[in-house]
Design goal:
Blueprint lengths: L13 H13 L2 H16 L4 H14 L6 H7 L8 H17 L4 H10 L6 H18 L7 H10 L3 H13 L5 H16 L8 H13 L13 H10 L3 E7 L8 H11 L5 E8 L4 E8 H8 L4 E2 L1 H8 L5 H13 L5 E3 L5 E3 H14 L2 E3 L8 H14 L4 E3 L5 E4 H11 L5 E3 L1 H6 L2 H9 L6 E6 L2 E4 H17 L1 E3 H8 L3 H11 L5 E3 L5 E4 H14 L5 H12 L6 H17 L3 E3 H8 L3 H10 L4 E4 L2 E4 L1 H21 L2 E3 L7 H13 L5 E6 L2 E6 H10 L3 E3 H4 L7 H16 L6 E3 L4 E3 L3 H36 L8 H39 L13 H6 L7 H36 L4 H13 L4
Antiparallel strand pairs: 1-3, 2-3, 4-6, 5-6, 7-9, 8-9, 10-12, 11-12, 13-15, 14-15, 16-18, 17-18, 19-21, 20-21, 22-24, 23-24
């Protein structure tokens, strides 16, 4: 039985094993017990626990009667030991003991069951073996603890152990609600890992559990379902449970105690629970449901029949309990709807859908269509809809019908683009006053204007048509209201109102019936034709015939027109400026005649584009304004085109000449192709500077013969540039030619700039190379930064610190040498550069060290030095944050600090 040679290394155990071997073969039980007692004492001393428990496991397997319950109690604490072999041996001893002696079954079974969650797979395999053996032998299912079995499944990876756990669960009569949720997720995971077309013992067990705990219809054939079908079935399965509690303590205990304990541990985000009293059976019915699925079920836009409700909830409720269940859900506010006497449930979503369909399909809602609902529920529901859609619903007279504002607008939108006006009389008659006003305020402005008479509104199309007719009437000479009203299908009064918005009444005459408006131009032309073609004695008679023909009083023809012109002339005397086009239409005159008309009224004017400026004060203001505009443009622009202003180019030229005489501006005129330009002082300076190495005054304005005054202007501008040291060189007074002597010096100067740039760029590249190595290490994501990498960073920083000292020395030496040599090249001794030269003279000298390019390169170098100084101080912080983020990935505050520090060190 024992391999005694295996125990030779244990001097204290070897003789015990030999004696056990001998006495077990002889059947000397008293001596066997004596040796087991010796082993039990050694256990308490915690010496050689692995071999001792191994010896006892062999005895437990072959001779379980020698394993007493007191020995088991000594062994149980060893199940907490880290040594896996000890735990395996103790499980073996405990398992064989339970199979042999069931006096302490419940207590010992519970200990064995607990180790389903042991971290060791080998331990769990042995536990599963004994659990199966014990359950097959005892069939006491109450020993199984469903919470422990479910939690064990969560961590189990071994397939055989998983099958055992599923087998144990399949023996349970029912599961708690929360365990049904957990098990469903576990089964979905197991199914997804199964081979698609292979039937295995594990897949059969999964089907058994689905069939037992998740089946809602008897005729569902799980065996023929695909893997995807099963997963979808489980995901969509509506989990619900029922418990019954009697007035006396039953199988489930006292309800009040249960409820208190349940509420203390329930997670309300996952479930809805409710209970109600069945008075007939004198029982409390306690129900649990998946919250999301229950709410989604009853929030659908439909009417639920009693048959459909029972089909869904038959596993929990009887037909008699169904009404109580729906009413409780409604009372608690989980669902909103109405349960009829016939058992039909109308969800609020269903009622809303019906309401919206009525508005959408018919454009109105008739409350009589909902007489199958109680008035209070309908009113409450409808008020909520009205509140949500108050801006879109119109109330009918009598409050029995409600109309969709959007639907009415749609109808108007369909009609309005096709007609000139739209009559809203229909809506005025069937809507309450406040709703009709709301409709008016919400008329579609894309199609309807704000002009109306009574309930007739002008459309945009009508407005366009009227405008077109008015333009045509100006050509014809008259506007006929009856004819155009009929043609456009517009109310005559509305047409007249719109017409008078566009036309000044003084621009013509109405006939006696105020149906036709004749423009003054048309009447004047007719009278002029009579005067030119008739004899003097017949003129008055023909004018009377014209008045009769036009249905205008004879006294009105010329008198009224002249009165209108007098009124217009008086109006013009009071105006500062007008649109000439507008008044040409009003008077019916040509532009030349209209200007003469102004002179008859002693009106002075300045014509600026379509704008006619009148009276001296405003004319002078306009000229002054134009002068100011010219001055501003001379300051900002190189040249002005004389035709770029809205007034006559001749007036612009006159004003520029005035400004030159007033010494407000400098410049000269130059004819360029088809337009005359005025070159400003700014533009002349630009021309000079663009040719600053060599130019002649005559060459600046090619083909122009410069006058003495113009040469003087150029001389003044040129001298100003020389005075400010902007131009340096020689000027030949005879030829008016300037030449620069800076070319050679500029070449040498640029050479030093290039050398300094190359020196700095070399250092930049070295900075960048070393920084790239450091950055690659410090910006690693979700990876550990190793000690050798940290050492590498520090070596780079130390090396760069040494380089920076050396590089600074080289840079300082170069700057000193270059500055000195270039000062000498300019005829300045370095020692006297800053102390003896005046400020103005100093500006004329180029000092290499102060050159913008040199300063910029030097700043770039200093910026790199600053980065490495910051890096030396703060890179340990990056390593610290990076390490913490590996272990705490969801810490947003830590991530923010890490990202901020990377940005500060230019690593983003």
């Amino acid at each position: 039985m024992f391999e005694t040679d295996d125990f030779e290394q244990y001097s204290n155990l070897y003789p015990i094993v030999k004696k056990l071997e001998k006495n077990l073969l002889k059947g000397n039980e008293s001596k066997v017990l004596k040796q087991i007692n010796v082993l039990e004492k050694l256990l308490k001393e915690e010496r050689d626990l692995v071999p001792i428990t191994y010896i006892l496991s062999i005895i437990a397997e072959r001779y379980p009667k020698f394993i007493t319950n007191s020995l088991i109690k000594d062994l149980i604490p060893l199940l907490e030991k880290k040594e896996e072999k000890i735990r395996i041996n103790v499980i073996l001893i405990l398992g064989f003991h339970i199979l042999h002696d069931q006096k302490h079954l419940k207590e010992n079974f519970s200990i064995l069951l607990k180790h389903l969650e042991d971290p060791s797979e080998d331990v769990r395999i042995n536990v599963h073996y004994f659990l199966t053996e014990i359950l097959d032998k005892t069939e006491e299912l109450e020993l199984l603890q469903e919470d422990l079995l479910i939690n064990s499944l969560l961590m189990e990876k071994n397939e055989e152990n998983t099958k055992s756990l599923l087998t144990y669960l399949s023996r349970l009569p029912r599961l708690k609600f929360e365990n049904l949720l957990k098990l469903r997720n576990l089964l979905i995971g197991l199914i997804s890992r199964q081979a698609k077309d292979i039937v295995s013992p594990l897949s059969l067990l999964i089907l058994t559990l689905i069939n037992k705990f998740y089946r809602t219809r008897k005729n569902l054939n799980f065996e023929n379902m695909t893997k995807e079908d099963l997963i979808n079935y489980l995901k969509n399965h509506f989990i619900m449970t029922r418990l019954e509690f009697g007035t006396k303590r039953g199988d489930n205990g006292n309800f009040k105690d249960f409820l208190a304990q349940f509420k203390a541990h329930v997670k309300k985000d996952d479930l809805i629970f409710l209970y109600f009293l069945d008075k007939e059976k004198k029982k409390t019915i306690f129900l649990q449901f998946e919250k999301k699925k229950l709410l989604n079920y009853f929030s659908r836009e439909k009417k639920f029949s009693r048959k459909e409700l029972m089909k869904t909830f038959h596993v929990l409720l009887t037909k008699r309990e169904l009404s109580n269940f729906i009413k409780t859900l409604t009372k608690l506010g989980f669902i909103i709807g109405y349960l009829s006497e016939l058992g039909n449930f109308y969800s609020q979503a269903f009622i809303r859908k019906k309401v919206e369909q009525a508005f959408s399909n018919k454009g109105y809602l008739d409350l009589n269509e909902f007489n199958y609902l109680p008035g209070s529920f309908l009113l409450k529901t409808f008020r909520e809809i009205i509140h949500d859609k108050k801006d879109f619903i119109l109330v009918g007279k009598g409050e029995k019908r409600y109309y969709s504002l959007e639907k009415i607008k749609e109808q108007i939108n369909l009609m309005a683009p096709k007609v000139s006006s739209i009559d809203l009389k229909e809506y005025r008659e069937k809507l309450q006053d406040h709703s009709f006003i709301k409709l008016i305020k919400n008329l579609p402005r894309d199609y309807i204007t704000s002009h109306h008479k009574g309930t007739t509104w002008l459309t945009n199309l009508g407005k366009i048509r009227i405008e077109k007719e008015i333009e045509n009437s100006k050509i014809l000479g008259f506007f006929e209201i009856p004819r155009i009203s009929k043609k456009l299908e517009i109310n005559p009064l509305l047409l007249l109102e719109i017409f008078e918005l566009y036309i000044d009444k003084r621009s013509g005459l109405y006939d006696i019936n105020k149906e036709i408006f004749y423009y003054s131009k048309y009447i004047n032309q007719k009278i002029q034709e009579i005067k030119l073609s008739s004899e003097r004695g017949m003129i008055n008679e023909k004018i009377r015939q014209l008045a009769k023909e036009l249905n205008i009083g004879i006294e009105d023809l010329e008198v009224k027109i002249n009165e209108n012109l007098q009124l217009i002339g008086q109006e013009l005397q009071s105006k500062g400026q007008i649109s000439i086009k507008e008044y040409l239409e009003k008077t019916g005159m040509e532009e030349s005649k209209f200007l003469t008309f102004l002179e008859d009224f002693d009106i002075n004017y300045l014509l600026k584009g379509d704008l006619l400026i009148m009276n001296q004060r405003k004319i002078k203001e306009a000229e002054k304004e134009l002068k100011n505009e010219i001055i501003e443009k001379c300051r900002s622009e190189n040249y002005l085109a004389l035709n770029q202003f809205e007034v006559s180019p001749n007036l612009v030229k006159k004003l520029i000449e005035d400004l030159i005489r007033e010494q407000e501006i400098k410049g000269l005129f130059y004819q360029s192709e088809d337009e005359e330009l005025f070159y400003t002082e700014k533009g002349i300076k630009k021309l000079i500077l663009e040719n600053s190495f060599l130019f002649s005054f005559h060459d600046l304005f090619y083909n122009k013969e410069l006058s003495e005054e113009e040469i003087q202007i150029l001389q003044e501008i040129f001298n100003d540039l020389r005075k400010k040291k902007i131009l340096k060189g020689n000027f030949d007074e005879d030829t008016l030619t300037f030449s620069s002597n800076e070319v050679l010096f500029a070449r040498d100067y640029n050479s030093y700039i290039y050398q300094f740039q190359k020196l700095i760029n070399d250092y930049m590249n070295k900075f960048n190379d070393e920084f790239s190595v450091v950055k690659a290490i410090l910006t690693k994501r979700n990876q550990t930064i190793f000690p050798q990498e940290i050492k590498q960073i520090q070596e780079i920083i130390d090396r760069m610190n040494e380089n920076i000292v050396r590089w600074r020395s080289t840079i300082d030496s170069f700057l000193m040498k270059a500055s000195r040599e270039l000062l000498i090249a300019q005829g300045v001794r370095p020692k006297k550069y800053r102390s003896f030269l005046s400020f103005d003279e100093n500006e004329d000298i180029k000092y290499f060290k102060d050159e913008p390019e040199v300063v910029e390169y030097l700043e770039n170098f200093k910026e790199w030095v600053k980065i490495f100084n910051e890096l030396e101080i703060k890179y340990p912080n990056i390593i610290y944050y990076q390490k913490r983020m590996i272990h705490d990935k969801n810490n947003e505050g830590l991530k923010e600090k890490y990202e901020s520090l990377l940005e500060e060190l230019c690593m983003k």
